[in-house]
Amino acid sequence: MKPTLNPRQVESFYSVMRTGTVVAAARHMNVTQPVVSRAISLLEARIGYKLFERRGRKLVATPEGQAFYREAEAIYGSLDRLAQVAQDIRFQRGGELRIATLPSLSQSLLPRVTTRFLSTRPNVSVFVQSLPSRQVADLVATRQFDIGLIELPMARPSISVEPLLPARSVAVIPVDHRLASKKQISVKDLADERMVLLSQHSFLRYQIDDAFSKLGVAPHVVMETPHSTIACAFAAAGAGITLVSHWAAESVSGPNVVVRPVKEELTSRSAIIFPYPGARSMMAESFAKELKEEIRQAKLR
User: Fold this and answer.
1) Other C-beta atoms lying within 10 Å of the C-beta of residue 136
2) Lowest mean pLDDT segment, chosen from 9-13, 78-82, 256-260
3) Which CATH number fits domain 94-165+269-300: 3.40.50.150, 3.30.70.270, 3.40.190.10, 3.40.50.300?
4) Are 114 and 126 in contact (CB under 8 A)?
5) 7-90 and 94-165+269-300 have identical folds
């Protein structure tokens, strides 16, 4: 019948093997020397053979003790690694963060924040997926992702929504367009202009249509898309003027377009979402804090 081992007795044996002496093992375990010696004696009695033999004032492992140590080392080595993993998780030195984001934030804001986040966490890896807001919400709600960035409004029973500061809108204009020389663009300037606009389910598109309606005109829409980055790319190609959040416009600023502020109060509203209910990962919380700070600082600039 195999013996039932006492974990504290095995730990005493392992500590003596690791430190070389009973005195050092006792100090390591924060107990007295007699406690360690008795634990090893009880372990030897339980397993039925000697683990050490005494040579003068030294303990030397028997061949059976060496064999027993090799097995114990595998177990305690795993525990040591597990303890290190626990510390890495606590202090966010290792692990993976999974982020799902709407495309308009994936080209400028998210890369900037993520790069800074990783600069102090060299053993952390990040997986990023860019999808429409509804799909982002579904992935976070089912805990396939730790954190999500979505466009508001959005409601799901299995997510927690934390709105971010609104993002001002800008006009992205082909560089050779007659309005490119203006320092600021008004919706009134855009009457009869060829427009590349976001799809009508977008809250920003609702504001744009409302602004045109107050002028008694309808926008001349030559193309619609649900993605701000696509709208910006078509504006850069000369298809028309688009109105998007300044985050989306950051990724396309270049020789083919100019980006101008919009006079009217047109804003994009986005939010951070977490799985709900249940505890959030500490790493996701830290990332959200850095993202919010970046947005706050951008608002001040």
Assistant:
1) 25
2) 78-82
3) 3.40.190.10
4) yes
5) no
Tell me the C-alpha distance between 223 and 195, whole Å.
7
- Interatomic CA distance for residues 122 and 126, integer angstroms: 11
User: Span 7-90: which CATH code?
Assistant: 1.10.10.10
Which residue type, as a one-letter code, is found at position 274?
F
Helices (H), the chain: 7-19, 22-29, 33-47, 63-90, 109-119, 133-141, 203-214, 228-236, 246-250, 282-300
Neighbours of 130 (CB within 10 A): 19
Tens digit of pLDDT for each residue in 63-118? 888 888 888 888 877 766 666 566 666 666 667 899 999 988 998 899 999 999 99
> How many other CB atoms sit within 10 Å of the CB of residue 225?
17
The CATH fold of domain 167-267: D-Maltodextrin-Binding Protein; domain 2 (3.40.190)
